[in-house]
Amino acid sequence: MQHTAFFGDGEKTFALTTEMILELERTTGVGIGAVWDRFTRRDYHFGEMMEVIRTGLIGGGMSPVEANELVGIYAKATPIEDICILSFYILDARWNGTPEAPAITQDDLRHAAATGDMTAAINETLKDAGL
């Protein structure tokens, strides 16, 4: 139940662990259900977006000091729409779970090599997986 995305200077892992949900509730002053509800209604505060990102970075394995620095350097200067989307994906990964990408089998790779069409093989695998 994590989300990986480019943030700041590279790919980062975000995870709202139980401890980080409790921290998010403490810093926002509302429960996780209220945070989720506000995000789904697009009725969130700027500070809530920053806290979702900060706690997500810490839950993803980053130190609290580094997470706070990255939020201060990158999140606050990023367009709000981009920060909103990232925050929502971090929350959504914990709320709904993170779907696993379907595996591409050796048969898929052999078919792609034989036909020279890797895109078709990947699309067929995704279609078979219902994605």
What does this structure look like?
- The chain has helices at residues 18-28, 32-40, 46-59, 64-75, 80-96, 106-115, 118-128, and strands at 3-7, 10-14.
- The protein is mostly helical.
- It has two domains: 3-96, no CATH class; 100-131, no CATH class.
- A two-stranded antiparallel sheet has the order 1-2.
- A hairpin with a 2-residue loop joins strand 1 (3-7) and strand 2.
- Helix 6 packs antiparallel against helix 7 (118-128).
Rounded to the nearest angstrom, the distance between the terminal CA atoms is 18 Å
Quick one: biggest sheet?
A: 2 strands, antiparallel
Radius of gyration: 18 Å
Please give the order of strands in the largest beta sheet: 1-2
Mean pLDDT: 85
Structural class: mainly alpha
Number of DSSP-assigned strands: 2
State the helix count.
Answer: 7
State the helical fraction. 55-70%
Helices and strands, in order, run as EEHHHHHHH
| Low-pLDDT windows of residues | none
Characteristics:
two-stranded antiparallel ribbon; 2 domains; 131 residues; 2 strands; mainly alpha
Question: Mind sketching the topology for me?
Answer:
Elements: E1 3-7, E2 10-14, H1 18-28, H2 32-40, H3 46-59, H4 64-75, H5 80-96, H6 106-115, H7 118-128
Antiparallel strand pairs: 1-2
Helix pairs in contact: 1-3, 3-4, 3-5, 6-7
